[in-house]
Please model this.
Amino acid sequence: MPRLVIVSNRVTSSDSHVGRAGGLAIAMSDALRAQGGLWFGWSGQIAAKTADTADLSKMENITYATVDLGQADYDGYYLGYANSTLWPLLHFQIGLMKYHSEEFRIYQNVNEHFARVLQPLLKPDDVIWVHDYHLIPLGAALRALGVTNRIGFFLHTPFPPEGVLSALPHYDVLLRALDQYDLVGFQTQEGQAAFEDAWQRLSAGPPHAVAGTFPIGIDTAQFSRMARRAMSSSLAHRLVESLGGRKLVIGVDRLDYSKGIPHRLDAIGHFLDNNRDWRGKFGYLQITPHSRNEVEAYRQLRQEIDSLTGRINGQFAEFDWTPIRYLNKTFSRPTLAGFYRTAAVGLVTPLRDGMNLVAKEYVAAQDPEAPGCLVLSSFAGAARELDAALLVNPLDREDIAQAVHQALTMSLEERRERWEAMMVGLRSNSILHWREAFLARLTELHLGGEPPEDDQASEPSQDQTEFFALRQTAASHVAELTERQRQVMEMVLAGHPSKNIAADLGISQRTVENHRASIMKKTKANSLPALARLAFVAAWNSNLALAPNGLSMR
Model:
């Protein structure tokens, strides 16, 4: 069974607080525990110089390998090129992009250094999965060291069109670096198309890397359960009591100019100015933990938000009511789940976002009997799946204000219809399904795409023969599953225990076990735990497009 190697800028270490770990960190940890593996990346610590070896620790069957960064490398690689050059570029904010050739050189050097530290830790059959814009050159650096393992890369941010991308000096270097991966994943089809278009303009030949769209999800059923339980917590009770019967509108964002927080606050002020009857009848809670305080653009953003909040509250507040509560605190995921369930309106209006999981978490947290309403930026990747939300232009304060009014006054029947439509997609595309879909596609590519048909072709390996036979068997049965079997299988693939599946679907645990056994027997998905599971996922993905309300993960 091949080992999984996750490479990310920061490593969620073995002693991280579980309650504060994000969905992505949990999904990666689950994958590593399932088949054993290594998690490699920056430790988050700044030292006198960048470490030449990784600090290793182990918990269960996961090895954590972290590297301290020297101050100069931290400044050039992380604060400089990654967050002052690439981050604004990838979010279409060319006016905020700063470029210094020395920082570009350090960015490349740090990636090459990471590759040198990682290489001795690798095994010949490891599957390597690299994450995000900090590490674009890492695959090319590993290839230069002779690493022939299958390597996938996933970009969590948007990927801009060539007209924006070309504003970056030497952008062709990054495109060629991406081409050293076997599989490059994007959040949306627009991102994938932008990459393919940029490559066509750069090179006459096709890229080596296969590009694919893999929209990241959340563990929908688990988050829904978390939200239900959170409503009995003391913090949720305090929040409800503090509202005094008023409706709650909520926004939760990291402090970042891509999130559109000033535009959103301006829209709240516009709403109050034009809807006098709603003054004193709702409260807006904006939770914004500070980040990247070393970057000047973020310090200026913080001052702008502080000023806007003070001005709006000063203009509209009464002695017993303040329209905006602005908190610079970090809350645990269970606490946020309870806050989302309490809120009548979720306000998620980034100027540009790769996906935005807050939008998905807000929907998943709702009470099915009385769900709230999501107001969502049409420029968030999540808008492709959550198109039953009220979609707005995040730059248009009147558009946002009108959507907030529509959400606050929407009938229960319409709220339920919109919520149910969005939940179909969330259940189909969980974060664990996203993870396995990416790894299944990477496995297909590694095994040659399809078994050779030519008699003169080289003899297929045992893994190839088994994988494609299993996929063919699975595919012939997946399309015949009933809707209930599909629902059960989605949750099985997401790793949910039978008792939770039974509770969420309102059926007995015995029924769940019967469905699971029948599906596994028909598709032979129990015969080879590692390879067969990936074969099953590959077949499942191919047939999702045929399922009612299914999502194509190809």
